[in-house]
Amino acid sequence: QVQLVESGGGLVQAGGSLRLSCAASGRTFSPTTMGWSRQAPGKGREFVARIWRGGITYYSDSVKGRFTTSRDDAKNTVYLQMNSLKPEDTTVYYCAAANVLARQEQKAYDYWGQGTQVTVSS
Predict the structure, then answer these.
(1) Residue 35's pLDDT is what?
(2) Could you list the pLDDT tens digit for every one of the 122 residues in the chain?
(3) Which pLDDT belongs to residue 41?
(4) What is the rounded distance in angstroms from the CA atom of residue 24 to the CA atom of residue 45?
(5) What radius of gyration do the chain's Cα atoms show?
(6) Nearest CA to 103 among 55, 65, 57, 61?
(7) 29 bridge partner residues
(8) What integer pLDDT is reported at residue 58 of this predicted model?
(9) How confident is the model at residue 112, as a pLDDT?
(10) Max CA distance (Å), the chain
(11) Plot region of 42 (φ>0 → left; ψ -120 to 50 → alpha; else → beta)
(12) CA 47, 81, 20, 35 torsion: positive or negative?
């Protein structure tokens, strides 16, 4: 059983920073793609960042230049460094993992975390 466990969410003022972590555990699991998605109330889920094994990354336009994702394959962990946070970044962030070179399609991901809440106050 593969599990993804996120941590690092919380409350921060606008302009501040947070770092999310997502650790993958369970059997022999070495995901090819790890990523971060979010879903604001009343909106669909948006993939904001993902990283392939080897380091190739993707960022949505809404976070480009402010968020950075990285991974530590030895720890099966992916990170999301979020800087210059805005109130519109407030929502639940989900970690996802795939056994293939996945892009931004939700259905391409095999495993999802429970989510961690990020709240940015103005």
Answers:
(1) 94
(2) 789 999 999 999 999 999 999 998 877 678 899 999 999 888 888 999 999 999 999 999 999 999 999 999 999 899 999 999 999 999 999 999 999 999 988 899 999 999 999 999 99
(3) 82
(4) 21
(5) 13
(6) 57
(7) none
(8) 96
(9) 95
(10) 43
(11) left
(12) positive
> Of 27, 81, 25, nearest to 51 (Cα)?
81
Whether 73 and 53 have beta carbons less than 8 Å apart is answered as: yes
User: Which residues, at least 6 apart from 63, have a Cβ–Cβ distance to it below 8 Å?
Assistant: 48, 49, 82, 89
Identity of the residue numbered 53: R
Q: What one-character-per-residue DSSP string does 14-81 give?
A: TT--EEEEEEEESSS---SEEEEEEE-TTS-EEEEEEEETTS-EEE-TTTTTTEEEEEETTTTEEEEE
Q: Which residue has the tokens 């991974």?
A: 71
d(CA 53, CA 118): 26
Dist CA 88 CA 57 (whole Å): 22
96, amino acid identity = A
